[in-house]
Specification:
Elements lengths: L6 H14 L4 E6 L15 E5 L6 E5 L3 E8 L2 E8 L3 E6 L5 E3 L21 E2 L9 E2 L8 E2 L22
Antiparallel strand pairs: 1-2, 1-6, 3-4, 4-5, 6-7, 7-8, 9-10
């Protein structure tokens, strides 16, 4: 029997940590054919989702997928995100959380590969200017305020999570 991945357990633990501390948990997700999200909010193949209690209905964080209902621009949507497609989970207010290595999507009939917890990257090691943040349920992502930001800072486009080793 194959060993269960540590990734869904880490996601649930960080979600609980966010809610226990009054933070708003967000997940950055790679969107593919197995991901069920409103496509009009997907940017560069990714979407950031607010998964707080106030933003979701019937949230289920299983070992294979995260599922919930949410409203986007006032319209209800059923959201399904395979655990393999979660790139990061973090608190919107301070950017603390964890990024995960990008996994190749399993082909039909293949088993999902295990994520080694030692490969996960604490987001404290990612500069705040590189984090994706989203205050309005996956509308437009903007960089967190930090050094080099403001009206005089160069415009670099949409930020992406950056893995720093």
């Amino acid at each position: 029997m194959p060993e269960t991945s540590t990734k869904p357990y880490l996601l649930r633990a960080l979600y609980e940590w966010c809610t226990d501390n009054g933070y708003t948990p967000h997940i950055a997700v790679r969107v593919d054919q197995h991901t069920r999200v409103p496509r009009e909010f997907v940017r560069d193949g990714e979407i950031v989702l607010n998964i707080s209690f106030d933003a979701t209905n019937q949230l289920q964080m299983g070992n294979e997928a995260i599922e919930f209902s949410a409203r986007f621009s006032g319209k209800p949507h059923k959201i399904e995100v395979p655990i393999a497609n979660v790139l990061a989970i973090y608190a919107r207010e301070n950017g603390q959380g964890m990024a995960f290595p990008v996994e190749e999507a399993p082909m039909d009939g293949e088993e999902e590969s295990d994520i080694d917890a030692s490969e996960a990257i604490p987001l404290e090691s990612v500069p705040s200017s590189e984090l994706i943040t989203d205050a309005s349920h996956a509308q437009t992502s903007t960089p967190a305020q930090g050094p080099g930001s403001g009206p005089d800072a160069p415009k670099t486009g949409r930020p992406h999570l950056k893995v720093i080793k």
